[in-house]
Amino acid sequence: GPPVGVLALQGNVPEHLDALRACGADPRPVRRPAELAEVAGLVLPGGESTTLSKLLVAFDLLEPLRGRLSTGMPAFGSCAGMILLAREAIDARPDQHQLGALDIVVRRNAFGRQVQSFESDLSVTGIGGGPVRAVFIRAPWVESVGRGVDVIARVPSSIGGEASGKIVAVRQGPVMATAFHPEQTGDARLHDLFLRRVREYAA
Ligand code: GLN
Question: Which residues are involved in binding L-glutamine (predicted)?
Fold first, then answer.
């Protein structure tokens, strides 16, 4: 298939490379504008969004990445990657850059007020074969979505409290994002969905 990359500045890079390999892809780490220019799709891993934002600037990737996203490059963001892709992030540092590829407002460290991390089984629209085990680590949730955004997963009501029903996975055209970490569970169905999208958009 077309070449895909994992943004390799910080965070869960090896896990995403492994998950993409498990789907039969030959992914490459992306650290330089020239590497970004060669990929047909990009995973933005979890990590720490403030740090990632600074590193995007330091590595001269911020504007090239905005450019690729604005012309329809498929992308898949997890956790901090979701925060970066969002139009707006609540409780982010004021100088944190947003890529604006998803018309969503996220709340950073949203679950932190209750629990730092937890796991839950979720059903994800477009993913067959049963629920997805979702690992949340200092995760954001999605406060609101624009018209063009599909909500593909929510926190089940069985979790209880304020988190119940919160949006934790979205898709807008070629861009998708999860508040959780699909690279941590050995279940590559979301990566597979991303790769299908890359093939569709490259065709
Ligand atoms: N809390 C982190 C942030 O704000 C995200 C955590 C993660 O990616 N696991 O960027």
Answer: 47-49, 108, 137-138
Q: For ligand 1, is residue 122 a contact (CB within 6 Å)?
A: no
Q: Residue 60 is encoded by which pair of tokens?
A: 């001269």
Ligand 1 near 169 CB (within 6 A): no
User: pTM for the complete prediction?
Assistant: 0.97
Using one digit for the tens of pLDDT, what is the confidence trace for 19-76? 999 999 999 999 999 999 999 999 999 999 999 999 999 999 999 999 999 999 999 9
Q: Which CATH number do you get for residue 23?
A: 3.40.50.880
Is the CB–ligand 1 distance for residue 80 below 6 Å?
yes
Query: What is the residue range of 32's domain?
Result: 4-202
How many domains does the structure of the chain reveal?
1
The interface predicted TM-score of the complex, written ipTM, equals: 0.95
